[in-house]
Design goal:
It is a single chain. By secondary structure, this protein is of the alpha/beta class. 23% of the residues lie in helices and 29% in strands. It contains nine helices and twelve strands. The strands form two sheets. Strands 1, 2, 3, 4, 5, 6 and 7 form a seven-stranded antiparallel sheet that branches. The chain has a five-stranded parallel sheet with strand order 10-9-8-11-12, sandwiched between helices. Bound molecules: adenosine-2'-5'-diphosphate (A2P).
C-alpha cells in the first residue's frame, strides 16, 4: 500500500517557508514504505539536465546556537524524472537520525526545498560506447537515476535490449520501481514518444534478499551462478555487446564493478566513454 499525500503525521515538523536561495516548491509526496518515499517539486525554468544526472537538494539547517545563522543542509540526489518532464522527481530513503532525511521525510505539498540547479553525474549515455544491450543494475534507492533513463527515448533508440535489475531487502521496497515499469508500459504519452515496439525492449528483473519473493538473491550471486542469464534467456555479459550502468550501496557497487571487469568491461566517463559506469546511491 502506498500512502499519498497529504499525509497526517503526528510527529511531522512543518518545513518552514522562508526566503531560501534556490527554493523550489513541493508538489507531491508518496510514502512507499516506512523507509522510502518519493516527491516531486517545481522545476527551475533554466534547469537542463541529462537523464541519469544528480543535483544537490536539501533544507535549511537548524540555527547555529551561538550566531543564530542557518546553513543549507544539502545532499546529492539523482533526478528520477525524465528530462522532458515539467517537474522534478526524487526518490529517497528515510534515515531516522539522518541529518537531512529525518526532516525531509516530513515535507508536504506547498513546502519549499533547496535545489541547486547544477546537474552532474556519470550515469549518462555520453559515458558509454555504442552497444546492443544495456543493463541497469540497482539496489535500494539506486533505482532513481534509472527511473529517469527508462523514460528517455534515447535509451530505447540506442539499444536493442534494456534490462533493469533491482535488488532490495524486502518486497515493499521494490514497489516504486515496479509501479514505474508498469506505468512506462501503459502510459499513452510514453507509447507515443518512445513507441510501443521500442518499449517492448524493456526487461525487468526484481530480486529480494530478506523476504520471500518470486526471485530471491543478490544480483551479483545470480550473475556468478548464471541464473540471471538463464532466466532472461540471454548470453552472459560481453564487452562487444553489453553496456552497464550501476547505482547502489557502496559494497554492491564495488562487487559488481569487479564482476563487470571480470567479463572484460572497462569503466567509462563523460570524457572517456567505455563499457560501464557507476554511481553511489544517496544515503543520509
Ligand atoms: P542483503 O540483504 O543480502 O544485504 P541496503 O538496503 O542495505 O542498501 O541493501 C539493498 C540491497 O543490496 C539488499 O538486498 C542487499 O542484500 C543488497 N546488497 C548489499 N550488499 C551487496 C553486495 N555487496 N552485492 C550485492 N548485493 C548487495
Amino acid at each position: 500500500m502506498t500512502e499519498h499525500s497529504p499525509v497526517t503525521q503526528t510527529d511531522a515538523k512543518p518545513v518552514k517557508t522562508m526566503a531560501m536561495p534556490d527554493a523550489q516548491t513541493v508538489t507531491e509526496v508518496t510514502h512507499w514504505t516506512d523507509r522510502l518515499f518519493s516527491f516531486r517539486v517545481t522545476r527551475p525554468a533554466s534547469l537542463r539536465f541529462r537523464s541519469g544526472e544528480f543535483v544537490m537538494i536539501g533544507l535549511m539547517g537548524d540555527p547555529d546556537p551561538k550566531t543564530g545563522k542557518q546553513k543549507p543542509l544539502l545532499r546529492a540526489y539523482s533526478i528520477a524524472s525524465p528530462s522532458w518532464d515539467e517537474e522534478l522527481e526524487f526518490y529517497s530513503i528515510k534515515v531516522p537520525d539522518g541529518p537531512l532525511t529525518s526532516r525531509l521525510q516530513h515535507i508536504q505539498p506547498g513546502d519549499e526545498i533547496i535545489l541547486r540547479p547544477k546537474p552532474v553525474g556519470t550515469l549518462v549515455h555520453d559515458a558509454l560506447l555504442p552497444g546492443k544491450r544495456i543493463w541497469f543494475f540497482a539496489t535500494g534507492t539506486g533505482f532513481a537515476p534509472f527511473a529517469s533513463l527508462l523514460r528517455d527515448p534515447q535509451t530505447f533508440e540506442d539499444y536493442d535490449e534494456i534490462i533493469i535489475t533491482h535488488t532490495c531487502r524486502e518486497v515493499g521496497e521494490l514497489e516504486y520501481g515496479r509501479t514505474l515499469i508498469e506505468d512506462i508500459r501503459q502510459d499513452e504519452l510514453l507509447n507515443e514518444l518512445i513507441g510501443a515496439e521500442n518499449l517492448a525492449k524493456l526487461r525487468y528483473y526484481p530480486t529480494t534478499t530478506r523476504e520471500e519473493s518470486p526471485k530471491m538473491g543478490r544480483i551479483t550471486d545470480l550473475m556468478r551462478s548464471g541464473e540471471v542469464y538463464r532466466d532472461l534467456g540471454v548470453e552472459p555479459i560481453s564487452p562487444e555487446h553489453d553496456r552497464a550502468m550501476v547505482c547502489g550501496n557502496l559494497a554492491f557497487n564495488l562487487e559488481i564493478k569487479e564482476l563487470l571487469e571480470s567479463y572484460g568491461l572497462e569503466e567509462g566517463a563523460n570524457s572517456d566513454p567505455k563499457h560501464y559506469v557507476v554511481e553511489k546511491a544517496f544515503l543520509d
